[in-house]
Amino acid sequence: MNIRHIAKEAGVSVATVSRVLNHPEHVAPKTREKIEKIIEEAEYTPNWFARGLNFNKTGTIGLMIPHILNSVHMEIAKGVEDVAHRKEYIALMCNAERDAAKERRYLEQLIKRRVDGIVLICSSLGEKDFKMLEEQNIPVVLIGDHKDGLGLHVVSIDCRQAAEKAVSHLLEAGHERIAMIYGFEPEVENGHKVEGYKTALEKRNLPFREEYLRTVENSIEGGYLGAKKLAELEEPPQAIFASSDYIAFGVMDALKDKNLKIPEDIAVMGFDNVRMSNLVEPKLTTIEVPLHKLGVYGARLLFDLIEGEEDGKEAKTILLQHKIKIRKSCGHKERIGEMF
Amino acid sequence: MNIRHIAKEAGVSVATVSRVLNHPEHVAPKTREKIEKIIEEAEYTPNWFARGLNFNKTGTIGLMIPHILNSVHMEIAKGVEDVAHRKEYIALMCNAERDAAKERRYLEQLIKRRVDGIVLICSSLGEKDFKMLEEQNIPVVLIGDHKDGLGLHVVSIDCRQAAEKAVSHLLEAGHERIAMIYGFEPEVENGHKVEGYKTALEKRNLPFREEYLRTVENSIEGGYLGAKKLAELEEPPQAIFASSDYIAFGVMDALKDKNLKIPEDIAVMGFDNVRMSNLVEPKLTTIEVPLHKLGVYGARLLFDLIEGEEDGKEAKTILLQHKIKIRKSCGHKERIGEMF
DNA sequence: CTGAAAGCGCTAACAG
DNA sequence: CTGTTAGCGCTTTCAG
């Protein structure tokens, strides 16, 4: 079933059929209606490839996700999808699986498939990859901090500041020996969180202790392992700041296994405010990150770029606000009123 | 940059270039190497659309997900993605958002984009939609039970049996007044779970009580609301069977708010065994569903269909095994050895 | 307002 | 082993 069938059926030329498909206003109402009816009846849909061959637009964006089972990333992805769907775009979902090689392979696929734009969530791609994209004239938006951030469009939060705020909260709650467990990835963001952690200690003239800083896989299991080690230290910390809620969940599990009470014996602080952080026992104090919004803003920026509303040359950085979400896992009775 | 540029550069015809791209063995090594080098240098990639126009294959499958933020669905999706990626396929991610209309719109998009096949997770599509797909000759695999299951390729577990097993476990643990909270969706699967619940009661000659069966949104919030109602009953149940772990989490939260101890005052049973079910307090007894495997088997079946390995005519149903995962939330001290 | 025809970039049959 | 050429299905000038 192709455009010629329709044309023959209607007794017109293919050009006319093509016109009712693309510029219906340039076709006489009568012929148009007739053709439309035939199209309807035949359930004819123009061939996607033939169309793309002429327009060179796919109505598709690439969406790179570092880890599809991590709900933090999926909430961002959902924000992107929401916007894309409203624009009648579909997203090609790429699960980079924390693997730079896989991410690059996917990127090549996306370029090959001529996507109209790409959203990269917490990407580990490098300068060369971005150059490639620029050559191909494919607009890109990064969500989450990036090492080569300069010259790229980025939407993120201020991780340094957020981490500093988190640690300060712990300090204000009376904890002094504060440890931090952070994930290997996303590398850059977590690097910033570590900086924030150190800054908070410095400002209080507290020593930075190497043994209180641990890096693990960014997962529940990672947190579990990290906390076990910390708890076994000669002088264990009074509080643990985790670079993600998932790590914090693992931390809490490990501490329970060690028969330590949270927050009485040891406080725990998370990062992200995923839905479950309000359901673990005790409820987790954490940094609330506007995940969905990050996705929405990222996608909007991308579409501005695609539609030429935004000058691609000038790199734009959008910083969204975070908040501290105080619940039970850090103690601090006075502020309990703010509790959710 | 197109195939003609490369041909001219290499001093050969476009056919030869096309050959090194598609049937390199039919090209003299010398010319081949020369052309390959030029392709490399020019970073030439064959035009996706032109290619599709000839092959009518996209290397893309559609993946319909009912709710992208539900990790149950994402684990299945991951299974699909794993297989697809190995086949060098990419999945077009469609977030149906529990909305039949949105799902249908996405389906139309997928057909328009000429995907090579579609995996539908817990779909709410109907007979007409499937007929459309058949007409277009697009193979489809359903993951999860479906009302029009007959004549379609399905991968799922036996929800009736699983639910019956779950309720029996509750009964064996000494609970008699067992309530069930199930989600509106996935409709068919949850319908089967309700059947299993009733069967278990019947087999013990226990009465089915209308007020003990509640349907809510399939979410933490839904479970919370449902459990509140149950707890306020004149004769509240001694145990609650939730049709999903997420509902169970909400149930547990509500019971805690009512100052009820789990499992001493009331037992809770989940369904799915998502990662978090092992981290809530108390750890949740639940039905372990092989989520990732469902996705893998579904995708494999789809690719067999795409590659013509499998006769599309004959509907195939693959039933995967589930297990009961006994933890703490239901009491039952004797079997505690099986605890994870 | 409509039709004829060129061309988008690539593949494959056919001929050499 | 390689080149010529006819499509794939559609859009879009250019004439009428």
CATH superfamily of the largest domain in chain A: Response regulator
Percent of residues in beta strands of chain A: 15-25%
Query: Mean pLDDT score of chain A, rounded?
Result: 92
**Overall geometry of chain A:** elongated
> What's the number of helices of chain A?
12
Number of strands of chain A: 12
Task: Tell me the helix content of chain A.
Answer: 40-55%
Instruction: Give the termini separation of chain A.
Output: 59 Å
CATH architecture title of the largest domain in chain A: 3-Layer(aba) Sandwich
Q: What is the oligomeric state here?
A: homodimer
Please give a structural write-up.
The structure is a homodimer of 340-residue chains. With 340 residues, chain A is an alpha/beta fold. Chain A folds into three domains: 3-46, lambda repressor-like DNA-binding domains (434 Repressor (Amino-terminal Domain), Orthogonal Bundle); 57-157 and 291-309, 3-Layer(aba) Sandwich (Rossmann fold), CATH 3.40.50; 159-288 and 323-330, Rossmann fold (3-Layer(aba) Sandwich), CATH 3.40.50.2300. Chain A has twelve helices and twelve strands. Chain A has helices spanning 3-10, 14-22, 29-42, 48-55, 71-86, 100-112, 127-135, 159-172, 187-203, 220-231, 245-257, 291-306, and strands at residues 60-65, 90-95, 117-121, 140-143, 153-157, 178-183, 213-216, 239-242, 267-269, 286-288, 317-320, 323-325. A six-stranded parallel β-sheet of chain A has the order 2-1-3-4-5-11, with helices on both faces. A four-stranded parallel β-sheet of chain A has the order 7-6-8-9, sandwiched between helices. In chain A, helix 1 (3-10) packs across helix 2 and helix 5 (71-86) runs parallel beside helix 12 (291-306). The longest helix of chain A is centred in the middle third of the chain and has 17 residues, at 187-203. The N and C termini of chain A lie far apart (59 Å). The model of chain A is unreliable at 336-340 (pLDDT under 50). Chain A binds chain B through residues 43, 45, 47-53, 56, 60, 63, 68-69, 71, 74-75, 77-78, 81, 85, 90-95, 102, 106, 109, 111-114, 132, 135, 220, 249, 252-253, 275-276, 279-281, and chain B through 43, 45, 47-53, 56, 60, 63, 68-69, 71, 74-75, 77-78, 81, 85, 90-95, 102, 106, 109, 111-114, 132, 135, 220, 249, 252-253, 275-276, 279-281. Strand 2 (90-95) of chain A pairs antiparallel with strand 2 of chain B, so a sheet runs across the interface. Chain B binds a DNA duplex (16 and 16 nucleotides) through residues 2-4, 12-19, 21-23, 26-28, 31, 46-47, 49-56.
